[in-house]
Design brief:
The protein is α/β, with parallel strands linked by helices. It has helices at residues 17-24, 27-30, 46-51, 62-69, 113-123, 141-149, 162-168, 193-198, 200-219, 221-231, 236-249, 260-272, 291-298; strands at residues 3-9, 33-36, 56-59, 74-81, 86-90, 104-107, 134-137, 155-159, 172-176, 187-192. The protein folds into two domains: 3-83 and 184-298, Periplasmic binding protein-like II (D-Maltodextrin-Binding Protein, domain 2), CATH 3.40.190.10; 86-179, D-Maltodextrin-Binding Protein, domain 2, CATH 3.40.190.
């Protein structure tokens, strides 16, 4: 009988490709695992990992770091997007970041990365929150794109390839976040360490399937792009550009390692925002447990 895992996702974005590939090619089945992958949007990832309704979550690091610093059991068990891949996309009337004064900008939540990155970009151009612009929670990248098309927001951070799709729809790319925030572990594979200790074997098998999916992604441009085009969904040319970007930049880390410098930046940003105690551990290793990932690589 297969081990059943509920793996939470934030939205239908390219970060999920190793999982989608693993499902497509039977890598999880080969490991004796059956995957359910609900999309949670802007719902918090901590509670489902704590109450057992999710075993794993492929999402941001912020809630994991906060829980661990407070003495909780949540930990990062593998990497995914080890750097930022977002552009600030605005509707046609807004051609420069300075034009966003008085605008409404879409974010996921007030406590996670895209809000902090947005603030950093706009502060560099003299715009400060909340005096100079408003934000509204739209959910992840696809619903943010919909909100832009409908004029419900004026701008929002969009990941590859949604930024390409937005540009083709006549919107303006006002800049790339990585030019303002060069180090950030954006997406990781997260788990409850208490569950992981009791289910070490299944976690190793899950990570092994994810490693296979990641390796296959890097080796198969045409087929991977066809999967991305279907699952996002996105036009095939944009999915191909996304493959070029993610594999060329190692944005989806080939070995699923965690960007330690990126975790340090997340910690510092959370502390500056008052969302993490100044006395919280500064060593990124406190929040990361890669022992199962190392076993998966060795298998």
């Amino acid at each position: 009988m297969a081990d059943k895992l509920a793996v939470g996702l934030v939205s239908r974005t390219y970060f999920n490709m190793p999982l989608w590939i693993g499902l497509e090619h039977g890598y999880f089945t080969a490991e004796g695992i059956e995957i359910d992958a609900p999309i949670l949007g802007n719902k918090p990832q901590g509670p489902p990992l704590l109450d057992g309704s999710l075993q794993l979550f492929i999402g941001g690091t912020e809630a994991i770091i906060q829980n661990a610093a407070d003495g909780g059991p949540l930990r990062i068990v593998g990497g995914n997007a080890g750097k930022l891949v977002h552009s600030l996309i605005a509707r046609a009337p807004f051609k420069h970041i300075e034009d966003l004064r008085g605008s409404t900008i879409g974010i996921l939540t007030l406590t996670e990365g895209t809000f902090f990155h947005l603030k950093a970009m706009l502060e560099a151009h003299g715009l400060n929150y909340p005096g100079d612009y408003k934000v509204t929670e739209t959910g992840g990248v696809p619903p943010r794109h919909k909100a832009l098309l409908e004029g419900k927001i004026d701008a929002g951070l969009q990941s590859v390839p949604w930024n390409y799709i937005a540009e083709d729809a006549g919107m303006n790319n006002l800049g790339n976040v990585i030019d303002y925030v060069p180090d950030w572990q954006f997406v990781s594979i997260n788990a409850n360490s208490e569950w992981a200790a009791k289910n070490r074997d299944v976690l190793v098998r899950f990570l092994r399937a994810m490693l296979r999916g990641t390796a296959w992604l890097y080796a198969n441009r045409a087929e991977a792009s066809a999967i991305a085009a279907r699952e996002l969904p996105a036009p095939l040319p944009h999915a191909e550009r996304a493959w070029d970007f993610f594999t060329g930049s190692n944005a989806l880390t080939r070995d699923m390692s965690v960007n330690a410098k990126g975790i340090i930046q997340v910690i510092a940003t959370l502390q500056e925002a008052g969302l993490l105690a100044k006395a919280a551990p500064s060593d990124p290793g406190f929040y990361i447990d890669e022992t199962c990932l190392r076993d998966a690589r060795a298998a």
